[in-house]
Every structure is written in C-alpha cells, then in structure tokens.
Amino acid sequence: MKTIQQESTAKLLDGIKVSAAVIECVRESIEAHVGKGGRRPGLAVVLVGSDPASSIYVRAKRRDCERAGIRAQDFDLDAQTSQDELLALIDRLNDSPDVDGILVQLPLPPHIDEPAVTNRIHADKDVDGFHAFNVGKLALRQPGLRPCTPRGVMALLHFYGIANRSMHAVVVGASNIVGRPMALELLLTGSTVTVSHRFTRNLEEHVRSAELLISAIGKPGIVQSEWIRPGSIVVDVGINRLPSGKIVGDIDFSSAAARAGWISPVPGGVGPMTRAMLMLNTAEATGVGVKMPFKAQPTG
Ligand code: GUN
User: Full-prediction pTM beyond 0.70?
Assistant: First the structure.
C-alpha cells in the first residue's frame, strides 16, 4: 500500500541563525564600547551541583560569552552548598565592580529556596530577569531586565517580521521562568493571551483557537499536532530528552510542521535564543547599547 507522506509546509523559525545574528550585534557593540574605554561586561555563572542537563546548559552559556566578548566568571559549587553560603556568594558578586550580571542556574538542589536566591541578586545585575522587581516591571509595562526565554521568543518572531499584535496567543504552561513572563511579553505587544496550565479544562479547544501557540510544558505528547490551527505560528519551548537520548520538544515536529505556517525546531529553536538574550541582557546591564538586527514590535 502506498503511504501518504505528510509534506512539511511550515517555514522555520531558525534559532541558530537568529541567535548568531544577535550575538554578533552584541559582540560588535561590546567591542565598540571597550574601544571607547568602556569596561568589558562580566557575567558570573553559578552552578550548584552537577545536574547533567544544567551542566550542558551552563557550558553552552559560557561558550556564548566567549562568542559575545563577555568575561565569564565560573562558580561551580558542590551540591551540598548551603543556602547561606550561596547567598553569601551572591552578596559578594552584588558588591563586585567587575561583575555586571549574575546567573544562578536553576533548578537548585531541594534544600535551597529558589525565590530567596533569585531575589537576593541585585535587580540591576539580574540578567536572567527572575527578580520580583524585574518581573513586576514587565507586568507594569516598564520592562527592565527581561526573562531570557520569553524575550528570545519575541526576538525570534520579530526577526521574521511576525507581528503578534491582535493575535490570539495561547501559552501552554504557567511557570515563573517561561509561561508567566511569556504571557506578559505577549500582552505588552498587543496579543490577546490565554495561559493554560495543569488545571485547565479543554486544552484542545484552546490550542485549536491559537493563531500563535507557545508550548512551555517540558513534556512531550500533551499538545497534539492535529489540534494545531492550520497556518498558525508554533513556538516549542520544551527541551525533553527521550530514553533513547534524543532531544525533542513538547510537540511532534514533523506532523506539526505539516499544519503550521511557522514552527521552531527543537533543538535549534528557542534554546539558542535564550542564551543570546542572556548575552544581550548582560551587555545592557553593563550600559552597552545594542542595536538589534530586527525591528521590535511596538508595545500594545
Ligand atoms: N533553568 C532553565 N532555564 C533557565 C534560565 O533561563 N536561566 C537559569 N538561570 N536557569 C534556568
């Protein structure tokens, strides 16, 4: 019997290409700043323990610092590090004139209270944008340092000239790191936003109505490709490792690409954009002005 091949119709939201363009802009702006006697940005990268996924992400962030011309200072702490020891390190980094940005990789070991840590970082050095002050600023339409993943998603859309204003955007997942600030970014730029989460009834109905679908669940197979609205924009924030070792998103790429108008792959979509935004935030925290390689959508 002849099998019907589903053809991929969606255009690719290529995070590798766009992140490289952003990092190049950051690098040029930093070199111009240093050339005029400015200080080279410094980023403290703090990893507690040796969670394999976190170790991979942190290594990639340190590599991107090199590409962007940012000085990375590494702090690899034992998994048994106490909360007080970690807070004392953050206090020291807050006071250090050589450190412009502080990144503490999450998740932290269970004996450490994450909000106590993220809120201890000085808001001006909070290049992850996780501090309550910076999230509050985003909520009040006065964005300061913005969470990297949602900012990266917006940059990816705007690079391709996708204007989300007035679109119905559906964010699946309501985490502090992605879902919630993602909704705020979309609201800021004039989308009508639905946020779904574990208590949501009828996820299918919401997904079917999405002109812009952002999946940030961290589990494959919950959002089904046949629910995707034909021609819609699909951004997959999930990074999931299958038992085979293969990395996949939340959504099956090839069947989703047969319905969507635009789609981001995993890997190679939002992940590199998140890191590029960390570089951009670090440059901006140092006072380096960076002109982005695309026009941002006006705020709504
Ligand atoms: N863990 C997963 N994503 C992130 C991120 O963007 N920043 C930090 N610090 N930890 C994370």
Answer: yes
